[in-house]
Design brief:
- The structure is a homodimer of 196-residue chains.
- In chain A, 69% of the residues lie in helices and 0% in strands.
- Chain A has ten helices and no strands.
- Chains A and B meet through helix 6, helix 7, helix 8, helix 9 and helix 10 of A and helix 6, helix 7, helix 9 and helix 10 of B.
- The structure holds a DNA duplex (18 and 18 nucleotides).
DNA sequence: GTCTATACGCGGATAGAC
DNA sequence: GTCTATCCGCGTATAGAC
């Protein structure tokens, strides 16, 4: 669950992370999920890793750097899903696969999605982050087809927001993973006008 | 924009707020929008109001209390929208009105929605908050009809998450209010299977 | 890379006078 | 209700040894 198999050549990351850094980001991610980004301190991350704060400063110069690395880590997961979809035989199949994988991802990582996507730091960072935009572009192209107008991008944003937002919604708290997954999949497909 | 006309009898708030408290919440809300909940300190709120921290502590015993009051303020806006919808002549009309008003609300308050809905404090507070659940129930009843199965609630959650999430999505940053509004309305109606 | 030690500032919160 | 003053703790960050 921590840091294997996310990377590959998928990562549109500024600087590749060392193994130690990956561990740090993994620990941070788990803490972000429980306490929120702002609610997670260097001290907590250090404790979780069994090292001192100073040790972490060696890998990341600021807390923001960790947050961004974590966000890029999550983005890489999405990229991996997109790549899997793009390798499908037909556009229709690609779309099916992608929707399913996005839903899986969101459910599996329910706690992270919220803390990260909601964080002001991340939002502003990603809004002028080229790699992020490219990922969103690929995403919406698979989802909406090449012929999607300029509005396609917002549709994709809305769908991902819907999925990401729904899993962290208070209402979803009561549902177990399986129920949540099947419901989301059904609703997402309806949003895309696919047969349910 | 600050504190008029939101209340009425709509407010399912624990304790009604005094005029001073309303001012404080208004200022807090604006700061939350810009800096996030965690990024907003008592000091900042005090500065915005031109008073000292201690003065604020007289109105709210903890920072959490302010956050909750702010969230309830936003919730009251939703309630007002629901009430307006419920007063419509037909269920179909009610649904149309509600969708439109929810979209309006989200666009108008794009910055708040995100900071608040994403905040861990709010999420956990609302998840066992009866008034909030009642509001969501009324919401989904208007949107989905009385005959909505047990899944109706999640559908409503997903729709509101979709709208709320889309407005704070990095992609939406580039759109002006009017474009965002019309796009969201179109997509939301499609989600509900309404004629576009 | 990791440690100990230390600094600095700020945020949350309280006491008590006006 | 608002002020001044003050406490405490924690988060961020750096220096310098191992």
């Amino acid at each position: 669950m921590a840091s294997k198999g996310i990377t590959g050549n998928a990562s549109s990351r500024s600087t590749p992370l060392s193994a130690v850094q990956e561990r740090t980001v993994g620990a941070a991610l788990e803490l972000f999920a429980r306490h929120g980004v702002a609610g997670t301190s260097f001290q907590m991350i250090a404790d979780a890793l069994g090292v001192t704060k100073a040790a972490i400063y060696h890998q990341f110069k600021t807390k923001e750097a960790i947050v961004i690395a974590a966000a890029e880590d999550e983005l890489a997961r999405v990229e991996t899903a997109i790549e899997a979809a793009e390798n499908e035989a037909s556009p229709a199949l690609a779309r099916d696969v992608l929707v399913a994988r996005i839903v899986d991802l969101a459910v599996e990582r329910r706690r992270m999605e919220g803390s990260l996507l909601g964080d002001p730091v991340i939002v502003s960072y990603f809004s002028h982050h080229e790699p992020f935009r490219r990922v969103m572009d690929r995403l919406y192209r698979v989802l909406m087809g090449d012929d999607a107008g300029p509005d396609g991008r917002l549709s994709a944003a809305m769908l991902t927001a819907a999925i990401g937002g729904a899993v962290m919604h208070p209402i979803a708290t009561e549902l177990d993973d399986e129920a949540l997954r099947s419901q989301l999949l059904r609703l997402a497909r309806r949003f895309l006008d696919l047969p349910t």
